[in-house]
Task: inverse folding
């Protein structure tokens, strides 16, 4: 079979393409469809999302850290108040019949000194009947979120010790 040069090669026509080709529909190669301003409208959208997400995460972490530290301050105030009541209780004796308490002069002062030495800003120790009540207040300044609703909170705690014969 002889080879024909490209210009003299017979064109093969398909049965459905009997005439000239109809115009092509849709995008033509090399041309982009107009975006109708979509690219300009979405510019920076992912950056804004990332900024909002990071700020939200920082607030959540701050609430967890400062909230946890506030709970720790409450636990510490409770522990100091209990120990202050016990310290005051060491200066109280009960007669063998269990009806009469003998309170040493330094009982209340010992309880208050214990609470003050362990960081309580406001202390109160009271003895009434067979019950010793100690109150401790610790101040907490938030570290992660200063100036928020947690700013300079006070953790209060009351503890009672009952003196038994």
Result:
């Amino acid at each position: 079979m002889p080879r024909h040069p490209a210009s003299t090669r017979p064109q093969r026509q398909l049965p459905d393409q009997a005439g000239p080709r109809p115009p092509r529909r849709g995008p033509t190669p090399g041309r982009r469809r107009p975006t109708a301003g979509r690219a300009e409208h979405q510019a920076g959208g992912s950056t804004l999302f990332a900024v909002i997400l990071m700020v939200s995460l920082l607030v959540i972490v701050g609430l967890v850290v400062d909230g946890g530290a506030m709970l720790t301050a409450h636990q510490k105030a409770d522990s100091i108040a209990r120990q202050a009541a016990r310290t005051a209780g060491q200066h109280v004796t009960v007669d063998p019949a269990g009806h009469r308490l003998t309170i040493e002069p330094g009982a209340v002062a010992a309880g208050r000194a214990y609470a003050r030495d362990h960081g309580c800003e406001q202390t109160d120790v009271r003895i009434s009947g067979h019950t010793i009540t100690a109150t401790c207040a610790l101040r907490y300044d938030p570290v992660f979120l200063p100036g928020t609703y947690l700013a300079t909170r006070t953790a209060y705690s009351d503890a009672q010790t009952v003196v038994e014969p």
